[in-house]
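Q: I have 560 residues here and want to know how they pack in 3D. Can you give me a structure?
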Amino acid sequence: MTVEIKNDIEIARETKLKPIKEIANGLNLLEEELEPYGHYKAKVSLDLMERLSEKPDGKVILVTAINPTPAGEGKSTVTVGLGQALQKLGKNAMVAMREPSLGPTMGLKGGAAGGGYSQVLPMEEINLHFTGDIHAITTANNALSAFIDNHIHQGNELKIDSRRIVWKRVVDMNDRALRNVIVGLGGPVQGVPREDGFDITVASEIMAVLCLATDLNDLKQRLAKMVVAYNIDKQPVTVSDLGVQGALTLLLKDALKPNLVQTIEHTPALVHGGPFANIAHGCNSVVATKMAQKLSDFVVTEAGFGADLGAEKFFNIKARLAEIEPEAVVIVATVRALKMHGGAAKQDLHKENLKALQAGFHNLKKHIETIQAIGLPFVVSINRFATDTEEELEALQKLCSENNYTHAVTEVWEKGGLGGIDLAEQLLHGIDNSNASFTPLYDVNEPIVDKIDKIAKIVYGAEGVTFTEKAKKQIEQFQSLGWNNMPICMAKTPFSLSDDPTKQGRPTNFTITVRELKPSIGAGFIVALTGDVLTMPGLPKKPAALQMDVDESGNVYGLF
């Protein structure tokens, strides 16, 4: 007899949610601090932070992973499951995650709210328009584009060089046809013709600014510093020069407030902000993480893609700028993904392959070395899939034991919090018995070249870094403008430790090529673009959207 396995949306639909006010009451929120958006989601006022300013901060646990593969890793699922497991152990825990972008939801991912019995709910709304935060960022970003073009049309008092406008329009969808466009056609009354382009919304600097701002005043100051263009003398033109930072802040005032929802087991969760980790810093908002620290004793958060991207940026950008001291790290790995890193083909993953597993284990080892360099205790979460054989699971556990890696087999997709009890206990033991201290990889006052070199060598395992002539000139320019004392945000493929997505496992004898640098002065970091990373993705041949639908009663299908 075959057992029918329910999919994520079926499991979500069968869950009886608690009213969001009941979740808020469990957190001791005041009535005026909660702004409900329907029955099951709400925004939380930033006034809460002042009321709880004297309360000790909860411990922050970061969930990261190996380099992602088409086999699946389940980082968000483990994040949710760990939060639920900590609550089952009697701990006051919360989850803090990013909001999904419609681009990958409709493209490859099909959703990003966890899975199985470890989801944040209501998953349909979280995966679609949610509370409108990303739409607010889209509007603010494109309003700024309109202000720039209008300024030029109305006489160009700032002498903006239309060939050197670096601010792009955005849309929250994978749309390769918009990467390069011409605006202003149609004659004098239609504006000044120029080249432009679109990024995906989550790559907008405004998304990064919103996620790193601590309050409305900080948001406004960061927006004012954003560089949008250069003038005819090649000097930067900022939002402050245009005088529109107030208008942009107005458009974002509600989006800055974190969104309160719940997991499938009613663990409270703040889902807020969603910068990509391959082209931005890949972490949920600072205000959500710090708010969760005030509302709970343990905050389980995640960073995008593998430890070479999201985790590295969490440590060196978010934690540094927000003065967050993380306590421990969970590194998610699966037998399936490690076999792919070891050379196994996707269509053969159901077959036992201990040789490929052992070869792929080196990818996990490299990510662990990165966490060890940061100086934090960690636990390897072996996220179990139904196709894993007992021999494969035993082999992976043996490899972890031989290297003295604390590890736990996790079954949170199938069992919810119960499937993460061992992981939670191992983690708590590591926190209680650790004398490690969090140490960023580099000093922000080091030269730009040295900071990039450290990331490439320590995190990626590269032999060094090659800079194009364009990148070299930009580094000189940034130094002359006083932009060199900032963290680095590496834009790199998530699929490899190198800048070549085809090199899986643990590549050796390679260098990283930095082709271009971009100043994100409002966010407070310098972006270094490597390889062929795109700030506007494209849809696959068969987008996940082809499976999505809604019936006459409004029930959603196809999200996963």
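Q: Anything worth noting?
A: Residues 133-250 form a domain with the Domain 2, N(10)-formyltetrahydrofolate synthetase fold (CATH 3.30.1510.10). The first helix runs from residue 8 to 14.
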